[in-house]
């Protein structure tokens, strides 16, 4: 993970994040000053950012919002105070309403981004200055330390060419914490078609099958969904999942609940995000479990292998035009 340290300093009212990357300073600078690239990592997993304004000049303003899996937005704005390409910039960060009006009851934070060359690439030093000890303590209590770590740990995928980062590596599973797992898979095809493959029954039935020998015998999609599979003609093997759509942002993001049909077991929240670059689509699925025990039990079923079989079939059927 690129983040090497996060330090809070109550005397100086600061929080400083340090991260090292295998990329030159100029590439790191580009990631932080191109809003389309910044969107891919500024929000922590489950809270992706969208920048709706980015006037990158001293005195200019950027507006953004981060959206929870339930569709709840958290909005903010930057005022650019200083810019020194490619070594850093400084902003005043504020919470805002939907119209971009600053919330006066919430303290502003001054953030300084510094980019330094290292023998192996580059280093990010991000220092946030708080107006009071109460403001610093409030940010820490709201999860700023872990949220910042998880957000910046996504930057490696942005700094590399997407195919170099993920092609040929199959389906990868990362445990983020007790409740969250991140699944990533590069799909060699356009984002629009990958989205359709996840939302159109006639396409879903061709690839979402897990290991060979299984058939999807029921496929209902919409505000609610229901999938049922069976192995061969053996009705005793029949099982399925159902849930509801919580958030849909075609062709970028879809959030749904998932629960095994006929059980009282807890539901998961599945947060699917798609990003296309050079004709390939990075699929990221963040799964929220009720607890670590449920997470471990589901991972132990061979879930990753089953997903890889399905994604490989997606490339071989849907994306091949079959």
CATH topology of the largest domain: Alpha-D-Glucose-1,6-Bisphosphate, Chain A, domain 4
The count of DSSP E runs of length 2 or more, i.e. the number of strands, is 16
User: Which regions have little confidence, pLDDT < 50, spanning 5+ residues?
Assistant: none
**Helical coverage, percent range:** 10-25%
Give an overview of the whole structure.
The strands form 2 sheets. An 8-stranded antiparallel β-sheet has the order 1-2-8-7-6-5-4-3. It has an 8-stranded antiparallel β-sheet with strand order 9-10-16-15-14-13-12-11. It is α+β, with helices and mostly antiparallel strands and about 325 residues long. It is about 25% helix and about 45% strand. Strand 14 and strand 15 form a beta hairpin. The chain is built from 10 helices and 16 strands. The model has no long low-confidence stretch (mean pLDDT about 95). The protein has 2 domains: about 5-160, START domain (Alpha-D-Glucose-1,6-Bisphosphate, Chain A, domain 4, 2-Layer Sandwich); about 165-315, START domain (Alpha-D-Glucose-1,6-Bisphosphate, Chain A, domain 4, 2-Layer Sandwich), CATH 3.30.530.
């Amino acid at each position: 993970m690129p983040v090497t340290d996060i330090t809070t300093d109550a005397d100086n009212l600061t929080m400083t994040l340090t991260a090292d990357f295998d990329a030159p300073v100029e590439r790191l600078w580009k990631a932080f000053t191109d809003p389309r690239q910044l969107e891919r990592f500024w929000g922590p997993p489950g809270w992706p950012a969208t920048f709706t304004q980015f006037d990158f000049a001293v005195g200019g303003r950027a507006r953004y919002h981060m959206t929870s899996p339930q569709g709840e937005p958290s909005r903010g704005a930057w005022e650019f105070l200083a810019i020194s390409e490619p070594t850093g910039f400084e902003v005043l960060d504020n919470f805002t309403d939907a119209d971009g009006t600053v919330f006066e009851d919430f303290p502003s934070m001054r953030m300084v981004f510094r980019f330094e060359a290292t023998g192996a690439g580059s280093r990010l030093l991000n220092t946030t200055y708080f107006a009071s000890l109460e403001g610093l303590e409030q940010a820490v209590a709201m999860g700023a330390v872990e949220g910042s770590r998880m957000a910046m740990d996504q930057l490696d995928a942005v700094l590399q060419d997407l195919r170099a980062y993920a092609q040929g590596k199959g389906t990868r599973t990362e445990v983020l914490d007790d409740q969250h797992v991140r699944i990533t898979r590069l799909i060699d095809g356009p984002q629009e078609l990958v989205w359709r493959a996840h939302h159109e029954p006639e396409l879903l039935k061709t690839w979402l099958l897990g290991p060979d020998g299984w058939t999807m015998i029921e496929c209902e999609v919409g505000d609610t969904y229901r999938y049922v599979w069976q192995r061969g003609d053996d009705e005793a093997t029949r099982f399925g999942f159902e849930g509801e759509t919580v958030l849909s942002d075609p062709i970028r993001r879809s959030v749904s609940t998932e629960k095994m049909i006929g059980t009282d077991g807890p539901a998961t929240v599945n947060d699917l995000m798609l990003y296309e670059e050079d004709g390939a689509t990075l699929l990221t699925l963040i799964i929220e479990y009720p607890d670590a025990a449920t997470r471990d039990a589901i991972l132990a079923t061979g879930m990753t292998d089953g997903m890889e079989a399905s994604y490989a079939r997606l490339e071989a059927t849907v994306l091949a035009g079959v």
